[in-house]
Structure formats: C-alpha cells, structure tokens
Amino acid sequence: MNGLERAISEVGGVCNLARKLDLHHSSIILWRKNGRVPAERVLAIEQATGVPREEIRPDIFSKHESTGVAA
C-alpha cells in the first residue's frame, strides 16, 4: 500500500480525506490516478492522517527530514 492509499484508509475513504483537506474528492481521485500527491499537499495530508510525509512522497522527503534527525 502506498502513502496515499494508506492516508485514504486511515481516514475512512476518499471523501473523508477530501473533507479534511477542504478539497473536492475528485482531487484525491486524480492524485490516485496519476500516482502522485502534489508536493504542496503532503504536509496537510501528514497532519490530517498521521501518515508520514516520506511515505506519501518518498521522492522528495527523506525519513531524516520528518524526524529531525541529521543525515
């Protein structure tokens, strides 16, 4: 399960995630289709769901960034 799918699961579905982010559910569906969450939405998803940013977008966030541990 990728980070977006886990975030969707954590809040109980696409519509619930969209509500938490104050977005239309079609945005979440588009991210799912494209296989990528926009970088500017990652931190809000992390805050709303508890899914770590490096799991949502591992291509731009490393585990060290979210934990504050020096690389």
Automatic annotation (TrEMBL):
<dbReference type="InterPro" id="IPR059216">
    <property type="entry name" value="LeuA_carph_isopro_dom"/>
</dbReference>
<dbReference type="GO" id="GO:0003677">
    <property type="term" value="F:DNA binding"/>
</dbReference>
<dbReference type="Pfam" id="PF15943">
    <property type="entry name" value="YdaS_toxin"/>
</dbReference>
<dbReference type="InterPro" id="IPR031856">
    <property type="entry name" value="YdaS_toxin-like"/>
</dbReference>
<protein>
    <submittedName>
        <fullName>CI repressor</fullName>
    </submittedName>
</protein>
<dbReference type="InterPro" id="IPR010982">
    <property type="entry name" value="Lambda_DNA-bd_dom_sf"/>
</dbReference>
